[in-house]
Amino acid sequence: MITYFKVKSSIPLGNNTNFCLNAFKLPSIISNSLRLPSLSFLVLIITLFNGFNTINAQNIMAPAKGFTVFVKEDASLVGTETEGTVAAGRDLVLHTGTYQISPPSAANSFYYGGIPIGIAVRRGLVFEGDINNDGDLKINTGHYIKIGSPATPTNSTVTYENGNFRIRPANSTKRTITINTNPGAFTPPVSASSNPVFENIFGTGAGQIDIDGAFNHFYAASAYLGSLANNVTIKDFDNSNFGPLNGPFLDKSLLPAKPKVILNPNGVNVMTISAEAWSSISNELAFENLSGNTGFALIINITQTGSQVTFPLSPQLQNTQGYTLFNLPDANGALSLIGRRGINGVLLAPNAAITTNTQANLEGQFIAKSFEHNGHEIHHIPFIPTLNIPAITVAAVTSCENDAPYLSYTASATFDISGMVGILEWLDPDDNVVHTEAGVPLPSGKRLFPGAAVSPSGAGSAWPGWSFDAGSGKWVFDPSDPNAKLRETGAKIRISITPAAGNPVTYAASVAYPPSTDNCLTSPPGTETSLPVTLAAFTIRDAGCSALLQWQVTEAVNFSHFVVERGTGIQDFQEVARLPYVQNDDRYQYTEGEQKLSNRTYYYRLKMVDNDATFSYSPIRNVALTGCDRTASARIYPNPAVDNVTLSSTSGIQRLDIYTPAGRLVKTQGAASDTEIVINFNNFVPGIYLLRVTTADGSETLRVVKE
Questions:
Q1: CA–CA separation, 663 vs 669, rounded Å?
Q2: Which end of the chain is more exposed for a tag (fewer CB within 10 A), N or C?
Q3: In this structure, are residues 234 and 263 in contact, taking their beta carbons and an 8 Å threshold?
Q4: DSSP states along 58-114
Q5: What's the CA gap between 467 and 391, in Å, rounded?
Q6: Is the dihedral of CA 583, 589, 595, 600 positive or negative?
């Protein structure tokens, strides 16, 4: 089967480059060539960007499915309104006060079950601060909300009643999400059994939000746009004798006092400027030839970002909306966006944790790792231009063949990749690179999973995470083996290709380790049966400069003892204690460091040993101990906290202030210069809090996690 695409026009990329759009064909990813001799497999569709001149025109924002705010992780709504929609790939964080979701129209909204969605949340809700303070999120204009879980991270309930269609945390009536459309007024009506609020609509299925695939697109698109050459110049608005200055504009001292950017009114304009230079523009930023013509677009690549970027005042961008895209290709981590007025344009920062602090509204769409909206309004302004984005597709399949785990892949592209090679990286669920293979052939190939091996006859002889213990004559599984992480949910592959003309392009996609079946094993023979003991829970916490390990077991059969091992990292473990198994006793604990441990992060695992010396390892847990080496300091325990925590200090405690990571004060507690006080965390929602402790010797900040 062949799928044909016909493109009718071309869009020039600036003054010097023209990427023509030609007819091309892509082999269907559903073909007999992908029918491998396996019993279980996962098909992944991979889209990579490249620098070739034969390309596929598309709206770069299409994978966001019309959402105004589209984030990979948390969306935090502080104030005051979004006239658009929000999608969060992890949690929705709500604050006290009132926040409105008011899309002006449902025409461009994402629909699920026939209903426009105002907010979509993959996991659950976080109610920031004291849940006994008032707070209400209102969802207006006939839109609905979908939340993945009612229990994680906050237990929440929903009431389907006319005039009282609300979501609340289970232990509070003060914090609410109000849906201002009655359940029966939706078409079709909604209820606890029909299109309920608590339902995960994220995934790769038909009609779902594929946020992981979307961000793979945005990662590649941001890198690709960032690689484009600057093709605009700058003049001085007041001085005709200045310049023109050619970009990229990295040195702020070279900019004129009143910059005027010279554009091509009929092409894609690329302006590359450092965050320092961009933030230094204190006067009004002017443009010449800013237009809404067919084929016009303005890409502003803001590079060398630190922790803050200030956007200059530019009324022209506000008056010509929908044609500007701000791309932050190297922004990573926390980033504060400050506007001398507002921000007018699409923001593409897929690796940044964005916090906004502007003097006016945000007008556009916003793609980020996480996003905190603080002050003024967000107005949905879609990106109008259709940009030329080169593309390649890859179909990948995991399979079990002759007792060995394999990954197979087949690539198709809008250009000839025959004879080319790429780089294949294997990543664990935390995105650490476990294994790299250079020179993998294109367009297709097959690879063993790292840690696997086959005999001369091709049969599986080794498997990821397993090693053979010659002493006992048995296979032993070690979860700290990096290759073992590739068996876990969330493992990925990343493919990189360097075109003949252009920068390297990459894409990461999840892979599923193929399970064993009756006919094909992906673990050593004899290891697919149940272990002699099942570890139901294993936790570790700071117990006042000591590490408290607690665990629970079930279904122990012919079991001998536990060995507690400590390491300086995820490897190099040493035995620190042995605890015998006691029949019918399912709960155990051990405290390491009765005489106080030093400041550092400690890693622990349990070695669980059977009566015949067979053993297996638990997952690795870690705890970071702080404030243990200082002679005059405060410390808090237990940490993480469940209800009450103890704060102790070598000098008298005078005052305690508790803040959220965003800097909002949630509690103040005085003290009568005691050296030890108890803090009640019962009414705090789960999350991270910062404790500012003032003592007779000064002040310091401690970090505590509320479970």
A1: 17
A2: N
A3: no
A4: E-TTGGGTT-SEEESS-EEEEEEEEES-EEESS-EEE-SEEEEE--S-STTS-EETT
A5: 41
A6: positive
Question: For residue 371, what are the β-bridge partners?
Answer: 75, 354
Phi, psi of 650 (to 5 degrees): -80, -10
Distance CA 388, CA 403 (A): 45
φ and ψ of 330, to 5 deg: -110, 15
**β strands within 381-462, DSSP E:** 387-389, 392-400, 405-413, 421-427, 433-441, 444-448, 453-454, 460-462
Q: What CA–CA distance (Å, rounded) separates 382 from 267?
A: 19
DSSP state of 481: S
The amino acid present at 594, given as its one-letter code, is E
Is residue 512 classed exposed, middle or buried when 0-12, 13-18 and 19+ CB atoms within 10 A define those classes? middle
pLDDT attached to residue 37: 34
φ, ψ dihedrals at 499, nearest 5°: -65, 165
H/E segment holding residue 335: strand 333-339
As a whole number of angstroms, the distance between CA 667 and CA 143 comes to 35
- Contact (CB, 8 A) for 397 and 42: yes
Say whether 225 sits in a helix, a strand or coil.
Answer: helix
Spell out where 488-582 has E strands: 492-497, 505-510, 534-542, 547-554, 559-567, 573-580
Among the listed residues 477, 463, 501, the one whose alpha carbon sits nearest the alpha carbon of residue 614:
477
Structure-block tokens of residue 662:
């965003």
Token pair, residue 501, equals 């003309």
Residues comprising the chain, all counted: 707
Neighbour-count burial of 77, counting CB atoms closer than 10 A to its CB (0-12 exposed, 13-18 middle, 19+ buried) = buried
Q: Is 185 helix (H, G, I), strand (E, B) or coil?
A: helix
CA distance linking residue 164 with residue 9, whole number of Å? 52
Do residues 302 and 309 lie in contact, with contact meaning Cβ atoms separated by under 8 Å?
Answer: yes
* 608-609-614-618 Cα dihedral, nearest 10 degrees: 10
Is residue 28 predicted with pLDDT exceeding 70? no
Neighbours of 394 (CB within 10 A): 24
pTM to 2 decimal places = 0.61
Model pLDDT for residues 567-577, shown as the tens digit of each residue: 866 666 788 88
Distance CA 382, CA 358 (A): 20
State whether the Cα torsion 193-197-198-204 is positive or negative: positive
Tokens of 51: 């620098």
Nearest to 383 by CA among 312, 292, 465: 292
Instruction: Tell me how crowded residue 622 is: count the other CB atoms within 10 A of its CB.
Output: 14
Average pLDDT over residues 429-449: 91
Identify the CA nearest to 125 among candidates 172, 165, 79: 172
For residue 279, report the phi and psi dihedrals to the nearest 5 degrees: -70, -20
Task: Tell me the pLDDT tens digit for each residue of 397-436.
Answer: 899 999 999 999 887 766 677 888 888 999 888 888 999 9
| 120, 202 Cβ separation under 8 angstroms | yes
The number of angstroms, rounded, from the C-alpha of 261 to the middle of its chain's C-alpha atoms is 35
Closest CA to 705 of 650, 590, 623, 618: 623
What integer is the mean pLDDT of 33-48? 33
